Amino acid sequence: MTKTPPGLPLRDYAAIGDGRTVALVAPNGRVDWLPLPNLDSLPVFARILDEETGGFIELVPESEFTSTRRYIERTNVLETTFTTANGVARVTDAMVTGVAGRLPWAELARRVDGIKGSVEFTWQVTPGTMLGTRSPWLDRVGEHTVIRCGDLSMAVVGTEHGAAIADAASPEPAELHGSFTASVDSRHLLVLTATEGEPLRVPDPEKVDEGIDRTVRSWLRWSEEFSYDGPWADQVQRSALALKLLIFSPTGAIAAAATTSLPENPAGGKNWDYRFAWIRDLAYTAHSLTWFGLREETHAAISWLLRTIREQSPDIYVMYTLDGATCAGVENYDVPGWRGNSPVVTGNPAQGQLQLGIYGDLIAISRTYVDDGNLLDVETARLLAKVADKACDDWRKRDAGMWELGDEQHYASSKMGCWQALTDAVALAEGLHIEGDVDRWRAERDRIREWTIEHCWSDDLKSYVMHPGSDRLDASVLLHAPSGFDRGERMSSTIDALTEELGSGHLLYRYSGVDAEEHTFVACAFWRVSALACVGRHDEAVAAMEALVTQTNDVGLLAEMIAAGDGAFWGNLPQGLSHLALINAALMIKELAQEEEHHGS
Q: Are the CB atoms for 76 and 15 separated by under 8 Å?
């Protein structure tokens, strides 16, 4: 294998992070994505979207090589082993964390250990233009050459890394580079440190070397707190680690994915920014975190969400920025995009949409939190009661549905979400956690159910349909087998109808007709698994799960979509909803199997 050209398949990327940002690392030793200092910052390293001026960090053997890689077990620290004709060396990549958690600056460390023979390495740090909005330059400060890009300051230090002398006055593009030879038992370190709008911390490379080991130990300690003993344990563990990368530790928010503008559609157009916190995704994540006993992350995420909603009231938005603000809209950038697939954007147009399903998501996660033995504060209890009242009124409205469609309709899954909101509100009230007009909540809950069954069921198709009067099918109704709306024959029949019309093997498209413009949606396939388990089709659920867990890439990550034909990844990655759906499917199969075993005994 020689140096790989730009435009790598999305399946090729592994992710590392520090609780504040995420880097994507390719098998050829190149970092093609790294926003600094925060995940939602304009990316200073974004070759994945802009091959010419996006920026990258390369560390690669000078001669032809093959590579294999893995995460150090139960961590988000990546090891890549390079083999050339003359030797073998291992690169360990980590976003370094501190003694008490994330560092107050960003620190990407790349450690090279010689294993056999000798391997000549070259490295290059080339900052990008932040999607065409900044022009980076080199600045000589004392004994250091600092890379400046807007308010961002970066420096490169190391040990035995063969740094070349940089000419800050050169008209050539701002970059730092060097070379060295790894031999048996040699160790080399390349460190990028970065801050924004503040003094730049230049670390001692020896301390960074210790920091890599500390970061490994930190991930291992976190994994020790993770409690799951069941089928597909390795895949569940890796998915939990992927979700942990998406938790923005300064606030507790959970990003939907680590990237922006990676296309859902080969023809372009469906390129969105997923570096925001959706109520839906955060709710699903918190369910899983609670199940695993991860108390700190659960409390931080739920507290952030409830506080943010109150601060941004009176409306409840579909999503928020990672620091708790509302989104300012979509901005387009004049860069090519992944493999020339445009547009490249920041922001997401779903911000102002009415999506009724989020009422159910919000109250459901609050109920999960309470069921775990916790208590609501007075303001949260009042907020949830208001949301329940709002669900009583708003369920009659048309909305954009879960898929954020421009065509507002009476979507079946939205009505089911309102049913879930009122079901959980009643349960919270009966437990004396919230106060409100419980009789009204019960009455409207039952009215929603009757209306949905009457208007959103097709006797001809033997399935719930997308909305009344339509013959289109929608995979999002599968979410309401686990919610309890329907675990009977109608849901079972709906699964069969969805499988026939939207299925490709065990993969599933989102809704009727969308296969003409995008690939299968990973989460939908796992929702089908959960629904199969809920309707008692255990063996089918297990068989589908066994097939689907093989769809991850070589290090266990999932994107938003998978091409049914060649298995290629599409959409943003790592995709939180995909990993959540995998986790929840495994949990559902295990939980229901245990219930069946208990009842049988």
A: yes
> Looking at the structure, do residues 283 and 157 belong to the same domain, yes or no?
no
Whether residue 339 is found in the same domain as residue 318: yes
Q: Do 231 and 209 fall into the same domain?
A: no
152 plus 256 within the same structural domain: no
Tell me how many degrees the CA angle 182-186-191 measures, rounded to the nearest 5: 80
What is the C-alpha to C-alpha distance for residues 410 and 510, in angstroms, rounded to an integer? 17
> Taking the model in full, what pTM does it have?
0.96
Q: What distance in Å separates the CA atoms of residue 570 and residue 562, rounded to the nearest whole number?
A: 6
- HSE-up of residue 351 (Cα within 13 Å, Cβ side): 18
- Spell out the residues 6+ positions from residue 189 whose beta carbon is closer than 8 angstroms to its own: 109, 110, 111, 112, 158, 159, 160, 161, 205, 208, 209
Contact 243, 285 (CB under 8 A): yes
Specify whether 212 is located in the same domain as 240.
no
What are the Cα distances from residue 309, in Å, to 325, 365, 376?
10, 14, 15
Last residue in a domain, options 186, 206, 223: 223
Domain assignment of residue 571, yes or no: yes
Domain that holds residue 83: 10-223
- Element containing residue 205 per DSSP (H, E): helix 205-225
The Cβ-side half-sphere exposure at 286, using a 13 Å CA radius, reads 32
What b/e sequence results for 388-410 when a residue is b if at least 16 CB atoms lie within 10 Å of its CB, and e otherwise? bbbbbebbeeebbbbbbbeeebb
The pLDDT of 49-53, averaged and rounded, is 96
- For residues 342 and 422, membership in a common domain is answered with yes
140 lies in a domain? yes
219 and 230 part of one domain: no
The pLDDT of residue 4 is above 50: no
CB 582 within 8 A of CB 239: yes
pLDDT above 60 (res 3)? no
Q: Does 3 reside within a domain?
A: no
pLDDT of residue 352: 78
> What distance in Å separates the CA atoms of residue 424 and residue 362, rounded to the nearest whole number?
10
Neighbours of 598 (CB within 10 A): 8
Question: 468-500: per-residue pLDDT in tens?
Answer: 999 999 999 999 999 999 999 999 999 999 999
Task: State which H helix or E strand residue 148 sits in.
Answer: strand 144-149
CA distance 123 to 136: 19
Task: Indicate the residue type of 588.
Answer: M
Number of domains in the chain: 2
- C-alpha distances (whole Å) from 129 to each of 9, 125, 148, 176 are 23, 13, 11, 15
- Strand extents, DSSP E, 49-86: 56-61, 66-71, 78-83
- How far from chain centre, in Å, is Cα 344? 19
| CATH number for 328 | 1.50.10.10
* Boundary-marking domain end, from 223, 249, 282: 223
pLDDT at residue 601 is higher than 60: no
Angle between helices 295-311 and 378-394 (to 10 degrees): 70
Positive or negative, the CA dihedral 481, 577, 309, 18 is: positive
Residues 497 and 458: their CA atoms lie apart, in Å, by 11
Query: 3-class SS at 192?
Result: strand
Quick check: is 557 in a domain?
A: yes
Do residues 96 and 208 lie in contact, with contact meaning Cβ atoms separated by under 8 Å? yes
Give the residue from 588, 67, 38 showing the smallest Cα distance to 346: 38
